[in-house]
Amino acid sequence: MYGTNGASENHILDGPGNLFERNKTDVFGFSSVDLGEITKIRIGHDNSGFGPGWFLDKVVVKNILTSQSYFFLSGKWFSKDEDDGSIEREIP
């Protein structure tokens, strides 16, 4: 994530169960330094596993201390076989 006060380290979005499945919402939590107003995110995957591509509708980042939410609309595939073949993107 990138904000008015700097950028966060990379975070691996992992957890129990099957993640990033069709018509599913996945929720992840992590801590970060104060980034100020979040201006963009970078998200992607390593293209491993069976059928690694996925379609990302949107990402919602919520600061649990301030209750401020930031919405990042994607509407794109993260797949070597779809759209432009990108598996990582910056979303403003």
Would you mind describing this structure in some detail?
This protein has 92 residues and is mainly β. It has a single domain, classed as PLAT/LH2 domain (Lipoxygenase-1). 0% of the residues lie in helices and 37% in strands. A four-stranded antiparallel β-sheet has the order 2-1-3-6, with no helix packed on it. Strands 4-5 form a two-stranded antiparallel sheet. Pfam families: PLAT. This is PLAT domain-containing protein. It comes from Arcella intermedia.
Instruction: Write the H/E string, N to C.
Output: EEEEEE
Q: DSSP strand (E) fraction?
A: 35-45%
Give the name of the CATH architecture.
Answer: Sandwich
Q: Kindly report the name of the CATH homologous superfamily.
A: PLAT/LH2 domain
Largest sheet: 4 strands, antiparallel
Average pLDDT metric: 93
The CATH topology turns out to be Lipoxygenase-1
Radius of gyration: 14 Å
Give the beta-strand count: 6
Figure out the total of helices: 0
Q: What structural class do helix, strand and pairing data support?
A: mainly beta
General form: globular
Question: Descriptors for this entry?
Answer:
single chain, globular, 37% strand, 0% helix, two-stranded antiparallel sheet, mainly beta, PLAT/LH2_dom_sf, Lipoxygenase-1, 92 residues
Structure described in brief:
This protein is an all-beta fold and 92 residues long.
Write the layout of secondary structure elements.
Layout: E1 2-3, E2 6-7, E3 38-44, E4 54-62, E5 69-78, E6 88-91
Antiparallel strand pairs: 1-2, 1-3, 3-6, 4-5
